[in-house]
Specification:
Number of domains: 2
Order of helices and strands: EHEEEEHEEEHEEEEHEEHH
Radius of gyration: 21 Å
CATH class of the largest domain: Mainly Beta
Strand content: 15-25%
CATH topology of the largest domain: PUA domain-like
Largest sheet: 8 strands, mixed
Shape: globular
Helix content: 10-25%
Number of strands: 14
CATH architecture of the largest domain: Roll
Structural class: alpha+beta
Distance between the termini: 34 Å
Number of helices: 6
Amino acid sequence: MAFGEVDGYPEGSLFESRDEVRVAGIHRHLVNGIAGRAEEGADAIVLNEGYEDDVDSGDIVIYTGEGGRDPSTGRQISSQKLIRGNAALVTSELNEYPIRVIRGYKLKSPYAPQSGYRYDGLYFVKSHWTEIGKSGFEIIRFELNKFNGHQLPPHSNQNLPLGNDNPEVRPTVVNKVVRDRTVTRSIKEMYDDKCQVCGIQLVCEGGNYSEGAHIKPISKVHGGADKLKNILCLCPNHHAQFDRGGFCISDDFTLIGIEGQLNVHSEHQIEISNLQYHRNLFPSLLRDG
């Protein structure tokens, strides 16, 4: 597997067929939408006919994982599982591997090419979750964001990139949800920067460090509120684990997926519906528990 750019095929390269895409080394499958292995990661996806729940906003793609479709009709007839290509995308998310995105002419999107297939650059998996799709079955969704004006060098798991002694600095424009820092500061002060899961307080030069973690994500996709009722005080490790489905929290604040109980301050009124929303993003935790 080779992650990143493929020599000789810059962003915008056009191909007449999936076979040309395969021969060029951009995406090695003729049919599968995801190219990758669960244990190694995914290095490319194709957006073409796609799933009914896909959303293509150009630099942001909400991509539906693979599986559960009737091969003859294309209809969703069963729930998806976190295996094969879906597991490969999660591996790429955890390891921050770049993913080549190819759009095909059958894609119902203003960003689709007029004909054939087009390589549209490198994206990364920002997050994943499970939800009930339009057909009533569980589907795994992936939010992919495009690397901003920034081309990564080609590399693989076996051949590590050399890096750069003098990395270039360039201005970029990024659209982000604006968070109220006073709210985050309040939750950190309430817990004296001690993680609500493990109780660790990270002592750094100049003060302590903790992170404000939103229970229901505040992205446009999920629409969570930037309020104390939707924020936890966590250490970086448990923040990352919580956001990526490593554990969730029951209504009585016991932890699911890991041992323990969430420490909750008497003045911290957590909205239970936010905990329920987060649990619904990762139903496999509930089944495994």
